[in-house]
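Marked as duplicate of an earlier ticket. Keeping the data here for the record.
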Amino acid sequence: MVGAADARGHTLHFGQKGQADLYGWRQGGLGIEVELKAAGGRLTPEQERWRSFCKWWGIEHHVLVARKDETAEETVERWIGELK
């Protein structure tokens, strides 16, 4: 996640441009990144570069796209299944 936050009068910047929305570690310490997209959403050029970076370093990277005919709950359930 790329962002900025105000901390006692100082702006803190964090993340890398194109970095996935969610990231973490799987069993065994393996990295995982998950990009979430609305229905019809696509990766930006920065996100494509980040995905390539992840592949190069052996970091699992997923792009999950919502479907316009799904409820939010259905989308989340489907995404959980796709990640398993």
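See parent ticket for discussion. The longest strand covers residues 30-37.
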